[in-house]
Design a protein that fits this description.
Blueprint lengths: L11 H48 L4 H5 L4 H16 L3 E5 L23 H4 L4 E7 L2 E11 L4 E10 H41 L4 H17 L3 E6 L4 E4 L1 H7 L18 H9 L3 E8 L2 E9 L8 E8 L1 H26 L6 H12 L6 E7 H4 L11 E8 L12 E2 L6 H8 L3 E3 L6 H4 L3 H10 L3 E9 L2 E10 L8 H38 L10 E8 L6 E9 L5 E11 L1 H19 L4 H22 L8 E9 L4 E7 L5 E3 L5 E2 L19 E4 L5 E5 L11 H12 L7 H12 L8 E8 L7 E6 L5 H15 L6 H18 L4 E7 L2 E8 L19 H8 L2 E7 L2 E9 L12 H6 L3
Antiparallel strand pairs: 1-4, 2-3, 3-4, 5-6, 5-9, 7-8, 8-9, 10-11, 10-15, 11-12, 13-14, 14-15, 16-25, 17-18, 18-19, 19-20, 20-23, 21-22, 21-24, 24-25, 26-27, 27-28, 28-30, 29-30
Length: 896
């Protein structure tokens, strides 16, 4: 083909351009025709659909049936149809009867005449559309029946003039032609751009230049050090460069033959080359070489279907990468061991973590055997040769190895015994050929070998020069035995674990010592008393012992003090401080002080302890303590409470309701910032006091208010439950399996002393009244069946009443209390306290309190807001008839 000038032949790019322009013009023309036809069809369809919709809407309008029944339907319907026609955009809406006689029409003169339409389908209940020559011209209309109780009573026709529909299509043709022209221009421009790009990519090269370029391409193809294969879609080898022929050892006539027919190829390679699938660095073994194969389809950019594959010899690279991978896995294992071993200060858990890290990355099974003293926190000695199986972990659970808890005495010939004695690891590549190990237990070791376990590494767990036990690594699924590299890795792994196990062992020892000290400082047995039915619990924390304590202290007058406290801090120091505070509480309680004064004295003591700690060491010592002190009186049913930064107690009423008294909080002990206040409560018999430390209600996973509510729920609705049962129920409801803090819990049910066991009198402020009181007291003691104590009681009260009248102030009262002891109390409004003194031979006084001290088991003074009370307790007669303490005749014979 020649150009228009006839001088130069038209280029291939020009020919392609001309052809593309022709094709684009034809496509645009066809598209315009198709769009015109489609627009005409769509317009007709739209007109028909609109007519049907308008007719159906009017036929189903609510007032149509009523209008049809009117005397003159046309008068009612004609305005409505005209308004509906204008609104809906149709040319007419006609309502007719079943004979086709019009009720309405846009031309009123046609009303009453027969409609031009096919009404039979509509009378049968169907919607019918048609095109007719009507009064308005060529019309497209839809006829819809009007039903009244399933009977066709009228018809509604709606439609448009055909010329209106055709006009809408005609208005769309210029738009369609304009869009076609634009598309033609865009297509022509795109074709021109593609042609220019084609010319630019070929650089206007002629045949000679293109031939030379392909020659260079062929030279490069065969000079590269990477094999190249091109395979057709039917599995025929189209091209193979020199490197591919060398790597695959292909014959000279390989090109053109089918790949499965080529001898010497690996089946995997044949499958890959004929599959047509994509592959990335897929490794195949061919003739002793490891080839990395990459394969891609050739038809992604319009080329013929087939695949192109590149081959790279990676034999040496795989060896190097294998070593690098082993090093990476080794570092990863050691890194994970640093994070995963020693997460807790528990010996057994640390041993479990070692076995879990080692399996399956180093061994198929791993076991840890520890010397028995290590499990109790002690260091093993050379005599401690027996070891306890502490941890076992493996890829399967049906192994024949010793189970956890088994005490093992390894024979001297075994690798474990040699490693324990020398402190050096042992490697046994083949267990079936290790007579020393087989001698341990012939039947069991043979079972282990038959199971498939074939290789062993045993490494001593050594820390600070002391061997704590053995770590054993076993292989069964991995076919290769352990090697020296595995041995060095096992040594590093065990060395890290040994430090953690030793830390856990030392912590176990210190924790046991702290727990022992803590328990030795707590009450071992509660004292006997009649005021309260008491149950208690003390649970040390898993990781550390703090200074929680509780106490039950009998007081004069059958009263009982309940104490719960918590020293800030953990460890031996906190436990020792707790012991000092508990001793101080006992000492202060002997003074019979109110709860707020007890706490004030404790506050001073804690402040001094803090000051001593700050002066003696750089550590500031404890930062305080909390305490709750309560005194219950079974006679008056009153309870006095005060707290210093401690959680409020819970009261379980006899009806099962639970409340938390609103006690003044007070600052923690040792701050000395604010005074403490005592709250007075009146409780009914059977009420339970629930005193506890913050470890019961506080937890990192919940708010303290949630803990208080859980405590309420655990106590509520169980008024008949004993304190012992309540203690267990509370612990089950609130405590996790491994509590992070100590817990002290004290639950006491209030009892009451019967009123007939209490007698009191008002004494006239006159020495002559003493004789009458002695008679009344003697009579009351006889009524209680305590005649053996009548004389001593008379004598004791005589001295106390005389002292109150002589040295005290009115009013004077006397109370006898019959409980576990017989308590005599004399109260007056004076605040002076009597005390013992040695009376000279010629002194007339000074012997009364000596006599009281001899007759009473205990005696003392307590102060009240009204004055003071002098009390004395006498032991009740034993079942044999005797009384404890000094007999009355011994008192009379004593030298006064």
């Amino acid at each position: 083909m020649r150009s228009l000038t006839g001088k130069y032949p038209r280029s291939l790019a020009g020919q392609v351009f001309a052809l593309q322009v022709v094709v684009v013009v034809l496509l645009v023309a066809a598209s315009v025709l198709a769009l015109v036809a489609q627009a005409r069809h769509d317009s007709s369809t739209e007109a028909r659909n609109r007519s049907v919709a308008v007719a159906q809407t009017f036929a189903h309008s609510p007032g149509l049936l009523t209008a049809l029944k009117a005397p003159d339907p046309s008068r009612v319907l004609q305005p409505l149809t005209e308004e509906g026609r204008k609104t809906a955009g149709v040319d007419f809406i006609v309502v007719m009867d079943t004979n086709g006689i019009r009720y309405t029409h846009p031309q009123p003169e046609l009303i009453g005449k027969r409609v031009v339409a096919t009404i039979a389908p509509a009378l049968a209940g169907h919607v019918y559309t048609e095109t007719v020559n009507g009064p308005l011209g060529r019309e497209a209309q839809a006829i819809v029946p009007v039903h009244d109780h399933a009977q066709v009573v009228a018809l509604v026709a709606a439609g448009m003039k055909v010329e209106k529909v055709t006009g809408a299509v005609a208005r769309q043709i210029p738009i369609i032609l304009g869009a076609g022209a634009i598309a033609l221009g865009v297509a022509t421009s795109g074709t021109a751009l593609v042609t220019r790009r084609l010319r630019r990519q070929t650089h206007r090269l002629g045949p000679v230049e293109m031939s030379r370029m392909y020659e260079h391409h062929d030279a490069v193809l065969h000079a590269v050090r990477e094999g190249v294969l091109i395979v057709s879609k039917d599995g025929r080898l189209l091209l193979a460069n020199d490197e591919a022929r060398r790597l695959l050892d292909l014959p000279l006539d390989a090109e053109g033959r089918r790949v499965p027919d080529l001898s010497g190829l690996d089946p995997g390679m044949v499958e890959l080359l004929t599959s047509g699938r994509a592959a990335t660095d897929e490794v195949h073994l061919v003739g002793g070489r490891l080839l990395a194969v990459n394969q891609r389809p050739t038809d992604r950019h319009g080329g013929p279907r087939g695949t192109v594959a590149t081959l790279r010899d990676s034999t040496e690279l795989r060896v190097l990468s294998g070593r690098a991978e082993n090093a990476r896995e080794r570092l990863s294992l050691l890194y994970d061991a640093g994070l995963g071993i020693g997460t807790t200060l528990d010996v057994v858990r640390t041993a479990d973590e070692l076995t879990e890290i080692a399996v399956p990355r180093l061994a198929d099974f791993a076991t840890v055997d520890l010397a028995e003293p290590v499990l109790h926190g002690d260091e093993p000695t050379s005599a401690d040769t027996d070891m306890r199986r502490t941890a076992v972990h493996g890829i399967r659970d049906d192994h024949p190895l010793y189970k956890v808890g088994r005490l093992i005495n390894f024979l001297p010939s075994t690798p474990q015994a040699r490693a324990f004695a020398t402190g050096r690891p042992e490697l046994v590549p083949d267990l079936s050929a290790a007579p020393g190990w087989l001698a341990q237990d012939a039947e069991l070791t043979r079972t282990i070998v038959d199971y498939g376990i074939h290789s062993l590494i045993t490494v001593p767990l050594q820390a600070r020069g002391v061997v704590l036990g053995m770590a054993n690594f076993w292989r069964s699924e991995k076919p290769r035995p352990f090697e020296e590299d595995d041995l060095s890795l096992a040594e590093e792994l065990v060395a890290r674990a040994a430090v953690s196990i030793d830390n856990a062992r030392r912590y176990t020892r210190e924790h046991a010592m702290a727990v022992t000290l803590q328990r030795s400082l707590l009450p071992r047995a509660l004292p006997e008393q009649s005021a309260l039915d008491v149950a208690h619990r003390y649970l040390p924390a898993i990781y550390g012992v703090s200074g929680d304590w509780f106490d039950v202290i009998p007081l004069p007058g059958s009263r009982v003090a309940l104490v719960v406290g918590d020293v800030v801090g953990h460890g031996l120091h906190a436990a020792a401080t707790m012991g000092r505070l508990r001793t101080a509480v006992h000492n202060f309680s002997t003074l019979d002080l109110p709860p707020d004064e007890i706490l004030r004295h404790l506050d001073d003591l804690v402040g001094r302890i803090d000051q001593e700690e700050a002066e003696s060491t750089a550590d500031t010592g404890i930062t305080g303590a909390t305490c709750l002190y309560a005194i219950y009186d079974p006679v008056s049913h009153h309870c006095a409470m005060a707290r210093a930064g401690h959680p409020p107690p819970a009261l379980v009423r006899p009806d099962g309701s639970v409340s938390f008294p609103d006690l003044p909080a007070g600052p923690p002990l040792g701050l000395g910032a604010m005074p403490f206040e005592t709250a007075e409560l009146e409780v009914a018999e059977g009420t339970q006091f629930v005193l506890y430390t913050d470890g019961l209600i506080e937890d990192r996973t919940r708010d303290i208010d949630v803990g208080i509510e859980l405590l309420r729920q655990a106590l509520a609705c169980h008024p008949d439950r004993s304190p012992e049962e309540s203690c267990q129920a509370v612990l089950d409801a609130l405590l996790p399996d491994r509590p992070k803090d100590d817990v002290a819990l004290l639950i006491a049910r209030a009892r009451a002393i019967p009123p007939d066991h209490v007698a009191d009198w008002d004494v006239p402020f006159d020495p002559a009244a003493v004789a009458g009181m002695r008679a009344s007291v003697a009579e009351q003691v006889d009524d209680w069946g305590l005649s053996e104590l009548a004389f001593a009681t008379e004598l004791l009260l005589s001295e106390l009443i005389t002292n109150a009248i002589r040295y005290g102030s009115a009013p004077v009262t006397v109370r006898l209390l019959y409980d576990r002891t017989l308590t005599c109390e004399v109260a007056d409004s004076s605040s002076t306290s009597p005390h013992l003194r040695d009376a000279a031979a010629m002194d007339e006084g000074g012997r009364g309190l000596f006599l009281v001290a001899q007759l009473a088991e205990r005696w003392g003074t307590r102060y009240t807001p009204q004055g003071k009370v002098i009390w004395a307790e006498m032991s009740l007669p034993r079942p044999g008839g005797s009384t404890e303490g000094t007999a009355r005749w011994d008192v009379l014979d004593a030298e006064l």
